[in-house]
Fold each of these.
Amino acid sequence: MHISGYTCILISLLCFGKQSTAQPNVRTHPSIILYDSASNSPNMLNIREESPANTMVGILCIEDLNRYDNEKLTCTTDSNMASLNLLPIDGEPSLQFYEIATTRVIDREEYLTFDLRITCSDNGSPSLNSSMLVTVNVLDINDNSPTFPRVKYEFDIFEDIAPESVVSTVNAVDHDDGENGRIEYGFIPDVVSGMFGINPNSGEIKTKVGFDRELEDTYLLLVIARDKGVPRRTGTALVQVNIKDVNDNIPQFTRPNFDFNITGDIESVTTVAQLTAYDKDLNTAPLVYALVQVYGDNSSFPFAVLSDGTIVTTTNINLDEATVFSFRVSVSDSGDTLSLSSYTMVNIKYKPGGISE
Ligand SMILES: [Ca+2]
Ligand SMILES: [Ca+2]
Ligand SMILES: [Ca+2]
Ligand SMILES: [Ca+2]
């Protein structure tokens, strides 16, 4: 380490200012004076994390006013995080200077502080020594980005969820200190801001509107977490929101009404027609069809409507005259709590065999 002339003078002045007033020619323990420009607390030093190895943390001034001419002072430390390097400062023979320097790069997220005990001994007989416990605070830099525990989150909400309902909360972790570790949440890009909102402080995601699964059943949100350090560091996570089905659509027949033509001699249990309907909801069970009402003479009605919408004869049909059978049919879905139905009119026009229309 290069010590400038100015620093030499400054250190010497500081140490001289603290010199003891022991009597000459009386052996005394060396006194250890810690010099540090960054910390005002005694026996306390600061080092900025991620500083390269061999960064100076502070300077020690060892004073042994009364050492004999041949006595040598030696200082050591018990810490493997810092070393003591003798500084080549000429001047007062009773003073000796050491630089305290780091031996490695120090991560504040691993060591908030570390202690080093400094012991200085003379080589007289018996050896006289002094020691000092120094605590080094590791000062934070913004070297950690906010990190979500998962790359992707998946949440389900029902399509009838009310606006301003909570979907879930996502949180990132930032191990830095203070503003360097304080996180603010948002969406990028902000295209879904009309549908969802995120609390910048808590990461709570809420709905802002109503949803319709039949229009859109999945939303992908890219959540960004920004710390407040300088420069700001960021982390992202993907949030997939699945819109779950609610039975909010009535099944619909594929036509407003159904007209079929049948002719001649038709045996019992013959399929004569098929009704069709659809439902936009995610039905787990098939739609169910049922005969609701027969118009006209009910007693000789020769058809049944099966639950799958098939219309079959229930007797032989062999009539002398053209006839129209009119009846009303329902179709129902299988909603969990509520079944929805709609209705249609069916006309089956019968003609005896051999008669052309
Ligand atoms: Ca950070
Ligand atoms: Ca840090
Ligand atoms: Ca439905
Ligand atoms: Ca639905």
Amino acid sequence: MARKISFINYKGGVGKTSLIVNTAAGLARLGKKVLLFDLDTQSNASIWLLRLERWNKINATNEGAILSIFDPGTAKIRDIVFRDVVEDKTGAKVLPGLDLVPTNFNLVDLENEYAGDPKVPHYLVFQRQLAEIEDQYDYILFDCPPNILRASQCGVFSCNEIIVPANPDALSLIGFTLLVDKLGRFHQVSASFRQAAMGPAAQVRGIVFNSIKTGVDIEVPKMRMQLRMNQFRAAKRVAADAKIFQTQIRDAMVVRRAVTLGLPVALLAQESDDGSQESVITDYRRLADEIIRMGPIGS
Ligand SMILES: Nc1ncnc2c1ncn2[C@@H]1O[C@H](COP(=O)(O)OP(=O)(O)OP(=O)(O)O)[C@@H](O)[C@H]1O
Ligand SMILES: [Mg+2]
């Protein structure tokens, strides 16, 4: 059964997209079959992995973008999966096993204009379509914007686990606290639509610290985050084994450069000559490994 994980924090710009794209690549490189959903109308993950030429076509027409699955009679999720999405400049597939369901800028219409059927909310439409293809994957990952509005709700309703990317600062702590609060409320609102087969509602599994600069001491913000996590665990508002991941991702220029080049960091290795890339690649591989080793909730 696929493990379904949302990457979300109420704080923007903490590195959710960078973390999910590079972790997805790390999992695929370890031989796992991975499906990544871009649920953020900013389309960062889609533009990164498709590069502009392929993404522009989707943005111009809506065809192949996630918004289209909410229109009855049009595409289903299974029709809009980009198989083995990562290509080099010649169009050769360079990362088999990583598939993408992309978005375009119009996903914002899901928040504003979508009427839908109140008896079948948007997240149930999404979850039912996802269920048709779930068994093709080991991992299904959802890149969410920093809120739990409708697009995020699709990921949060359909997943079982939540990973919270964070920076070692006070705003990330506030973002985490707000997230747990909003999650609880959404689970209450959506509870009547959950089927037993879906398993329990998603719980926070852990926090990953991202963009850690060399020589910067993060012990105090880390301790504060750990205290908050302990409180949430005691109150059963996060998973019983929720933790701060041992792996933390260092700050590295190459992470920013990878976006421009349209590749996950790990695939830039050959182009490296400054040595720093190796190390952040190791961080992402370790994180992929740590996620695999921790197993699903309750394992
Ligand atoms: N480990 C890292 N080292 C250096 N730069 C990083 C790292 N992780 C992320 N960044 C950079 O930080 C910026 C924000 O990252 P990213 O877009 O992944 O955050 P996000 O949480 O997805 O943002 P949003 O809330 O807008 O979706 C980007 O410019 C990205 O390249
Ligand atoms: Mg993002």
Amino acid sequence: MFVGGITRMERVISNDIEPPYLSLVTGPPGSMKTSFSLSMISNHLKRTGEFGLYCTVEETVDSLLKTCNSMGLELPTNLQITDLTELRKENEAMDYLKFTKRMIQHFKQERGSQFSVFILDSLGAIYSLTSVDEEMRKKMFGFFDFLRTQGLYTFIITERQPGEHAELQGNEGFIADGIINLGLDRRNGKIVRTLQIEKMRHVRHSMEKQAIDISSGSVTILGPLFD
Ligand SMILES: Nc1ncnc2c1ncn2[C@@H]1O[C@H](COP(=O)(O)OP(=O)(O)OP(=O)(O)O)[C@@H](O)[C@H]1O
Ligand SMILES: [Mg+2]
């Protein structure tokens, strides 16, 4: 997934991950959480022919396709994009987690083990649509647990400001197997895009912040950044 999907990622991690594996992709607005995830999973799906489900809660499919066009990224046909932004308008009392769970079960039934990748964009959007109380936290825990039992590579996109912890509601960071933090660093009047692995269970990885570049539809590791 990582080594095949991101150019020079083998310099950052010593071995790749095996599903089930749940990673948080965190970062501030514009740090390319969406582009990074789309590019990595597209590469994976093109290479393996497996099936992936991308669930967008805050951005319309139209907007996602514009992002891809701008990056020169062609989405594979074996990636299904589901737009929850439409549902949001129709039904305010909607249980998004339950809906998403059913959708995953449906594709598991239809595709079996070919269905291997699931992305949720984003966790913050789900939280903003529901009241977050103890009940919701339990539900989210159950949802993460469910994702793990499905044997999927899961990427949960999570907004996060620099210096903040990865968890939005207290426990996501502990439940996740991996945390990949994307960022924007200001250097010499310029903004540099960065990637830093904060956590990756079962993998020996670099702790350094890496400069990255996204061009012609793929993410490239440029090398570690030093202060
Ligand atoms: N063709 C391109 N090549 C490189 N960078 C681009 C290109 N097109 C857009 N960008 C950059 O991508 C950024 C948006 O990326 P993306 O939508 O993936 O970020 P995000 O972290 O998901 O943001 P949000 O929190 O708003 O969802 C833009 O702000 C712009 O800097
Ligand atoms: Mg986004």
